[in-house]
Amino acid sequence: MTIAQPYLLFLADAPHAKTAFGVRHWRPDACAAQFRYPGSTLDLGLPEMTPDQAAAAGVKTLLIGAAPAGGMLPDRWVGDLVAAIRAGMDIASGLHARLTDVPELVAAAKAAGRRLHDVRHPTENFTIGGFERRPGKRLLTVGADCAVGKMYTALAIERELRARGVAADFRATGQTGILIVGSGVSVDAVISDFVAAAAAALSPAAADDHWDVVEGQGSLFHPAYAGVTLGLLHGSQPDAMVLCADPSRTALGDFDAYPQPDLAECIALYTDCARLTNPDARVVGISLNSSSFGEGEAAALIARTEDRLGLPCVDPVRTGVAAIVDRLGVKGR
């Protein structure tokens, strides 16, 4: 799916807007304005516009950037979404609830010739596909656990590559990433047999010096989500992998009986599994979410991890990712 930009970020009256803040941070050039209800405490620092004003200013899509309870679409929002459609905008949502299950939105979109994007629910049909080696370079972020910074790390690496004049594209595999860049596939909603094919389609053949930076999902060490991780690993055929972890954790997310794996064990298993479709695959660096540690403690932790594993170790927020990009050996323009 491809979503037209720029966006009107819809905050409404929700208490949280992680998606909107993520899009604003990583793609400020795609964010034209915000639309929030009176009394809202959320503020992206963007111009305030109604749907009619935004459409007149050339905005293409109203993006639901807020997170109501349970991921459902409140009835009180529907009238404003219909107004946005009638004004000439598409609607994009990462909510669990489907826009296409709301009759008023479907009717308005059909009448106005606009599109409804339910980014959690892929519209493409994938087959098993083929797994011959493709030209171009690919980097995949992988995890010791879930929710450890794989998307943030991938976006930071794409930004660093582009800053060096290297051709690079972030390939989104989750709803927030899709809304940040405007395209991608939410692979956790793809039929399990076709996850690898979806990952291959997402990172197609490219020029030899082009890097696709693929957003990882799940973890090979997580009993609930290892399947989607393995499909991404095989389909993306990564030349390079960056292992992401949260050193403050002792057990896997939501599974206290499963301890956090050792990072050396992670490197070995990810490398072995990736080499089924790319015999040259290797882990090139470690990305730690050290937000639970003070500056000095975090710096010492990063240094110890780097010394122990013999790989560059970063926190993408505190240190940036230049050391990992250096390891890729890319030649910028």
Automatic annotation (TrEMBL):
Domain D-glutamate N-acetyltransferase-like C-terminal: 134-325
Pfam families: DUF1611 (PF07755), DUF1611_N (PF17396)
Domain D-glutamate N-acetyltransferase-like N-terminal: 44-122
SUPFAM superfamilies: P-loop containing nucleoside triphosphate hydrolases
Protein name (record): DUF1611 domain-containing protein
